[in-house]
Design brief:
heterodimer; A: about 240 residues; Alpha-D-Glucose-1,6-Bisphosphate, Chain A, domain 4; 2 domains; seven-stranded antiparallel β-sheet; Mitochondrial distribution and morphology protein 35 (chain B); MDM35_apoptosis (chain B)
Chain lengths: ~240, ~100
């Protein structure tokens, strides 16, 4: 007996932004159960796609009725494998826990696909498989499924928060992608060049004013600096 | 940016992540559907750019995290998971094995 779950969700942001947010989603306040996240393999392929393997440590919880000692600890190692196809405008991502597999294995599959109207569709599928036995298999699978459903909303809230931060940071006068190659040191001259190229002459003072206002708004400098620090070499 | 599984790797991870995120943002830029030859050229250019910008940072971080994975006794579990369920099936020789 295996339990299934499937759902889709539409983000209003374009695919490139949602994909970026998807990779930046840890840490966020809605994912406090994620203890660590490491890239263990990354390969740009000759076909132009990008393969990534990440190893995550997540804190979990067990149902009250679970027998003592079913797991020696409630943390779990998760392997996340993804392929970003920039030409096809699609991300395919699969995650599974790699320990406690006899008690419970959750296989999650996420697809982020560009929509025709410039939006992004996320499709999530999950399978819950327990081989625990002792008459608990079905109950454990049901428990995992219920937990997953109640957490999926939180996981989207996390991505939406990162999307908002990205949107806000892009309103700043220094774009993240400063000089054609994003990530080189943020060169103010290049930024000005981009600003004048992308903003019509007559609207520029307005947007500068808006940027200044945003910069001085409550919480803005620290949030902006934080997200900017994610895109440049520190030091 | 998230913590590494080993606190000693976190600074190396953050340095690498910052470089990757910047490259990644450019990589994701809208591309017009192009002929296969152009597509391959873009793939090569982006891969070279990634290597040139982030290759050294990646090497440092990867060494650290590989050591930490081994120290935590996760290597065989990870190896098994990759062998059992190649979730993303690479359809090309794994270039990482060469270095």
């Amino acid at each position: 007996m295996v339990k299934f779950f499937a759902q889709s969700h539409v983000y209003d942001d374009p695919w490139a932004t949602v994909t970026l947010a998807f990779f930046l989603r840890y840490p966020n306040p809605y994912a406090s159960h994620v203890v660590s996240c490491d890239v263990i393999s990354r390969t740009p392929t000759p076909y132009g796609t990008l393969l990534t393997q990440r190893l995550l440590l997540k804190r979990g919880s067990l149902p009250k009725w679970a027998p003592q000692g079913i797991m020696t600890r409630t943390e779990s190692w998760i392997l996340e494998e993804s392929e970003v196809d920039v030409e096809g405008r699609i991300v395919r991502c699969k995650t599974s826990n790699i320990d406690h597999v006899k008690v419970m294995q959750v296989h999650e599959s996420t697809v982020l696909k560009e929509d025709q109207n410039g939006k992004t569709v996320q499709t999530t599928e999950a399978r819950f498989v327990s081989n625990f036995g002792w008459g608990l298999t079905k109950r454990l699978e049901k428990f995992a499924q219920t937990k997953f459903v109640s957490n999926i909303e939180k996981s989207r809230e996390g991505i939406s928060l990162i999307l908002r931060l990205l949107r806000e940071s892009r309103l700043q006068p220094l774009p993240i992608a400063a000089d054609g190659y994003p990530g080189a040191t943020l060169n103010p001259n290049a930024a000005i060049h981009i600003a004048s190229a992308s903003t019509p002459e007559n609207t520029r003072p307005d947007s500068e004013e808006k940027n200044a206002r945003l910069r001085s708004g409550p919480g803005m400098p620290s949030r902006w600096q934080q997200i900017r620090s994610w895109f440049t070499r520190p030091g | 940016m998230a913590e590494s599984l080993s606190p000693s790797c976190t600074p190396l991870k953050h340095a690498y992540d910052a470089c990757f995120n910047a490259w990644f943002e450019g990589y994701l830029e809208p591309v017009v559907a192009s002929a296969p030859a152009l597509r391959e050229r873009r793939a090569r250019e982006k891969a070279d750019e990634y290597e040139a910008r982030c290759g050294a940072l990646w090497k440092n971080y990867r060494e650290c995290v590989q050591k930490a994975v081994a120290e935590k006794g996760l290597s065989s579990m990870l190896e098994q998971a990759r062998k059992d369920k190649p979730l993303v099936e690479p359809s090309y020789p794994d270039s990482e094995k060469k270095d």
